[in-house]
């Protein structure tokens, strides 16, 4: 279960940013996790819930977006969707070559943190309190 280290990292980021921005409560955490990241969302969510218990992030909504796998053809540069279960997507639709690199699908980002500050509602975007 490699989810464990990932969840620990996310919780550390969330709690550190919340402390830096002096928030009272974290109400939501937005993650972007590419489809090539082999994680179980239910395990991830359960671990997040357990690790945030008795912290200012307890009860925070975890919102996970899963961008698709996109490839870039090394021959012509075309970017296209890849589906392991659909052979029609295993070749570049522009030039039919099978020589490609991963363009997206490996992302793992904390995209935003929603919080209730000690003064007025705010959010944390890219490490900045707003």
TrEMBL record:
It comes from the Bacteria. One of its GO terms (molecular function) is zinc ion binding. Zn(2+) binds at residues 73, 76, 92, 95. Ni(2+) binds at residue 2. Keywords: Metal-binding, Nickel, Zinc. Belongs to the HypA/HybF family. PANTHER family: HYDROGENASE MATURATION FACTOR HYPA. This is Hydrogenase maturation factor HypA. It comes from Adlercreutzia caecimuris B7. The gene is hypA.
């Amino acid at each position: 279960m490699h989810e464990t280290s990932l969840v620990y990292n996310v919780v550390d980021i969330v709690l550190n940013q919340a402390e830096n921005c002096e928030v009272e409560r974290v109400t939501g955490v937005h993650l972007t996790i590419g489809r090539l990241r082999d994680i179980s969302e239910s395990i991830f969510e359960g671990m997040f819930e357990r690790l945030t218990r008795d912290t200012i992030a307890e009860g925070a909504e975890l919102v996970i977006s899963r961008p698709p796998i996109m490839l870039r053809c090394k021959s012509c540069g075309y970017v296209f969707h890849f589906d392991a279960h659909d052979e029609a997507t295993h070749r570049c639709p522009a030039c039919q070559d099978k020589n490609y690199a991963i363009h997206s699908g490996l992302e793992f980002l904390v995209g935003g943190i929603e919080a209730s500050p000690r003064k007025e509602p705010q959010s944390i975007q890219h490490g900045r309190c707003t």
